[in-house]
Protein: Thiopeptide-type bacteriocin biosynthesis domain-containing protein
Organism: Actinoplanes nipponensis
Amino acid sequence: MREPPWVSAHLVHGGDLDALLVSVVTAVHASGLAGDLFFLRYWEGGDHVRLRVRPAAGATADDLCALLTEHGRRHFAAHPSTPADPDQYARQARALGALERLPTWEPVQLPNDTVVFRPYVPEYDRYGRGAAMDAVERHFVESSRIALAVLAARPDPDRRQTAALSFLLVSASAGVGTGDAAPPREQALRDLAERAAFARRYERQRGKLIELQRRMAAVATGPARTTGVLAAWHRSLTTLRDRLDAAGADPPRVTAILDTCGHLLCNRLGLTLAEEAYVRYLAGRLPADRAVEEAGR
């Protein structure tokens, strides 16, 4: 049976996107009208959350649109945005549009505290079609659920970065993450890492970080029945890899997709580009440094 199409809503808000996500997604799930759901944060047109939701059995796309509009507006009324700055948006759009190599972008910021419905356009060129796209979207749903579990605890920036690093270290230990060995689209992140002198920062935290890597490797090699968000991430990513292999995706594409999934988890957790750059730097360096340290014992 064919799945119903995704309803795609952009919730534009110049405020706490964590609180918006937890509030709206909790309400949507509680309604019984929503099936699978995943989300991303994005900047184009102003800071917003992109929710993709499938109707549950017996529900319609119109039901979901009404539900998302209602709960979005309710949250916006209780937590209004800070006033928009058109000049700031224009500067941000130029910088981020160039960083992502976009040919065009929204020239004007959308009104804050609005719910805008846009068609969902799957990225077939990046992920593939058919079984490959189905596998990727299934992972997006699971990744979003994992990120929301972290966000519900209202983490501060340090805990948020530690969570992101933990997930990426689990990926690396399971052989399904590329850490800092990113594809060309991430070159700007590597450059940012170098400018921020991450190596010196790492040395100040080295002992604690290597111990974290040791614990995450244990998660990746632990029993399949292990529970918790780290184990769920490991299962989701390894299942995605296996399903992509079964769908006939070539190894370079599988590697690129898995790397993108790490990036998108950082996005869902709300890391800034600079924070993600440091986390990815660590995820790429720690496994080798731990191996060298243990070999010298």
